[in-house]
């Protein structure tokens, strides 16, 4: 059973579940991945914790992971890029096995772009300034481009807008402007590195540069991981 550690935010969790269903090869209910969801939006803000000394989300993440394990989950996913910075401690405390959104996304970029071609990262400030994506791409010799400080503020404004329910053309336009700047800087693709951002990119049928959606990539990885189990049950 797959355990979904969600609520960060709720719309992003729903987006993952929708993409998991779409990524699963199924002809009947029983062919789908069995899932339990912990969709608790009370988890303290991850960027606020890392950038501004806000409350530590680790205890809430441990509570959620423990609950999912108690409900029978064998593998967990966290529907938040920045939360992955806290998962090593969560895994050590709970013994949970997490399927990494970051690892799956790095592999997706490697398969999409030729070696050495830069990739842009649109993410919350904590994730953008950390080694979360920077370290694996540096190891692979791939340049990682992040927005200039004023554009990073725009990214954060878009993330906050989605969390507040504003998924409008104006919000999409703000994200498109930042994406255009990354393309001009040489990005061959951009990572929608906050789980709110794919919801906005879905409004744009013709993005200015290829967009890599970690939520969709994680959903595909989860569907593939559970495929042998589902076939055995069938």
TrEMBL record:
Stretches that traverse the bilayer: none
Tagged with keyword Repeat: no
Keywords: Isomerase
Entry keyword annotation includes Isomerase: yes
Highest taxon in the source lineage: Bacteria
Any Pfam family the entry gives: Asp_Glu_race
GO molecular function, one term: amino-acid racemase activity
InterPro entries referenced in this protein's UniProt entry, alphabetically: Asp/Glu/hydantoin_racemase, Asp/Glu_race, Asp_race
Family stated for the protein in its record: Belongs to the aspartate/glutamate racemases family.
Name under which the protein is recorded: Aspartate racemase
Organism: Amycolatopsis mediterranei (strain S699) (Nocardia mediterranei)
Lineage of the species this protein comes from: Bacteria, Bacillati, Actinomycetota, Actinomycetes, Pseudonocardiales
